[in-house]
């Protein structure tokens, strides 16, 4: 059970999903604070989950043990620099869920007021890359901790993000770009495949509702089998591919079209773009 005070700066979809996940796992709403200029969003979250609304980010900083930065990447530098003065008085654990923003840039922006955070210690920062299925508590989140994060804080950060799904730690922050390409952008790839399956089913004579439901349930069932099985995806595929059967015919066509190579190229392109965007976001804010 998490018994720390948690503050969210930003109240978008990911903050909403984490607040929902935390309260569903037993975290008391009165231990959660949410701050956002959009009062409609904060009012909605407060009404649904009985959490506190904070109208002042500095006040929130001085109240909580953990600060979750849940703003858009383009807004993060400005928000961090505004928070910096308050962080000369206190040192909460900082968790960022802003995609593409490096931990070193977050540290720099948060210490911009005096060059030193509270007690002359560098701030503990955890950078996360969640994905959109976190909205239904089925997300996949990779986490990276800077050198100031201790074991207790790592456990706390993991517990918070685990309320929205699976979590795992990265040893190297540079791996976050590959994570972004695989799981961060991954739901869109799956939606594209579902879209293609549904369209193909309709072209083969099924009505739209039937094709839609069969495609979604098939993807769900296959994912559930892969998650719960000790077999690799390759082994599972071979088990359901009978020699000379319909599945073998379809798989052969997909492989002849170099599906695996195409998927690799897609992820490689997404990773390269992730690196590029991280550089753009950092350079623009530090100019």
Major sheet size, sense and barrel closure: 8 strands, mixed
List unreliable stretches of 5+ residues.
Answer: none
The strand line-up of the biggest sheet is 3-2-1-4-5-6-7-8
The CATH topology of the largest domain, please? Rossmann fold
CATH architecture of the largest domain: 3-Layer(aba) Sandwich
Helix vs. strand class:
alpha/beta
CATH superfamily of the largest domain: NAD(P)-binding Rossmann-like Domain
Measured as a percent range, the helix fraction is: 40-55%
Please give the radius of gyration in angstroms. 22 Å
Under the CATH scheme, which class of the largest domain?
A: Alpha Beta
Walk me through the topology.
Elements: E1 6-9, H1 13-24, E2 32-35, H2 39-49, E3 52-53, H3 57-61, E4 66-69, H4 73-83, E5 93-96, H5 103-110, E6 125-129, E7 139-145, H6 151-162, E8 165-169, H7 176-184, H8 186-203, H9 208-228, H10 233-239, H11 246-256, H12 259-286
Parallel strand pairs: 1-2, 1-4, 2-3, 4-5, 5-6, 7-8
Antiparallel strand pairs: 6-7
Commentary on this structure:
The chain has 287 residues and is of the alpha/beta class. Helices cover 53% and strands 12% of the residues. The protein has two domains: 6-174, 3-Layer(aba) Sandwich (Rossmann fold); 184-269, Orthogonal Bundle (ProC C-terminal domain-like fold). α4 (73-83) links the parallel β4 (66-69) and β5. The longest helix has 28 residues, at 259-286. The chain is elongated.
């Amino acid at each position: 059970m998490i018994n720390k005070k948690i503050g969210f700066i930003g109240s978008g979809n990911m903050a909403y999903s984490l607040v929902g996940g935390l309260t569903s796992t037993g975290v008391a709403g009165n231990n959660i604070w949410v701050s956002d200029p959009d009062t409609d969003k904060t009012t909605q979250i407060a009404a649904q989950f009985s959490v506190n609304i904070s109208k002042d980010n500095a006040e929130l900083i001085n109240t909580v043990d953990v600060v979750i930065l849940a703003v858009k990447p383009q807004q993060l530098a400005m928000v961090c620099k505004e928070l910096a003065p308050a962080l000369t008085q206190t040192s909460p654990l900082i968790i960022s869920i802003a995609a593409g923003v490096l931990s070193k840039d977050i540290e720099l922006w948060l210490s911009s007021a005096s060059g030193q955070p509270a007690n002359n210690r560098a701030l503990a920062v955890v950078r996360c890359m969640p994905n959109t299925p976190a909205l239904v508590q089925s997300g996949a989140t990779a986490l990276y901790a800077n050198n100031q994060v201790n074991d207790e804080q790592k456990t706390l950060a993991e517990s918070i993000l685990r309320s929205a799904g699976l979590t795992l730690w990265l040893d190297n922050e540079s791996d976050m770009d590959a994570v972004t390409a695989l799981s961060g952008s991954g739901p869109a790839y799956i939606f594209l495949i579902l879209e293609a399956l549904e369209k193909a089913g309709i072209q083969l004579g099924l009505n739209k509702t039937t094709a839609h439901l069969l495609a979604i349930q098939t993807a769900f069932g296959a994912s559930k089998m892969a998650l719960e099985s000790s077999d690799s995806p390759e082994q599972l595929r071979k088990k359901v591919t009978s020699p000379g059967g319909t599945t073998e015919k379809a798989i052969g066509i997909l492989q002849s079209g170099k599906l695996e190579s195409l998927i690799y190229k897609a992820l490689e392109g997404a990773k390269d773009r992730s690196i590029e965007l991280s550089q753009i976001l950092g350079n623009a804010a530090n100019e």
